[in-house]
Design a protein that fits this description.
Elements lengths: L13 H22 L24 H4 L25 H13 L9
Length: 110
C-alpha cells in the first residue's frame, strides 16, 4: 500500500482512555463485591415460599350487571369556522384533507 494513501485513524485521547480505565476498574469492583460479598462468606441466605392467596367469592350485589343504563351528559357548546367556499366538492375535500393532516377536524359540509 502506498504511504500517501495510507489511512491513519487517531487513537482515543487522554479523556477517552481515562474513562475506559475508570469503567473497567468499577466493573472489577462490582464483580469482586458480588463474589466476596456478605451472602457468600458462609452466611445464610433466607429463601421463603410465599403462600398462594385464596380467591374470595364476590357477593350477589357485584354479579348484578345492568342490561341498560341511562346517563345524562352535560350540555356542550360547539364553535366552528368556515375556511372556504368552493365551487366543486373536490376542491373542498382537498382542503379538508390538508387541515386533517395538520391535526384539525377538517370536513366537508354541503
Amino acid at each position: 500500500m502506498n504511504e500517501e494513501n495510507k489511512r491513519v485513524y487517531p487513537s482515543g485521547g487522554f479523556p477517552g482512555k481515562l474513562l475506559t480505565y475508570a469503567m473497567l476498574f468499577f466493573s472489577l469492583v462490582l464483580i469482586l463485591a458480588g463474589l466476596f460479598g456478605k451472602n457468600t462468606r458462609g452466611g445464610e441466605l433466607l429463601v421463603q415460599v410465599m403462600a398462594t392467596p385464596e380467591p374470595t367469592l364476590s357477593t350477589d350485589v357485584f354479579d348484578e350487571t345492568p342490561e341498560t343504563r341511562e346517563i345524562t351528559l352535560t350540555t356542550t357548546t360547539w364553535y366552528a369556522i368556515q375556511l372556504g367556499a368552493f365551487e366543486n366538492e373536490a376542491s373542498a375535500k382537498e382542503m379538508a384533507i390538508e387541515y386533517q393532516s395538520r391535526g384539525a377536524a377538517g370536513y366537508v359540509f354541503k
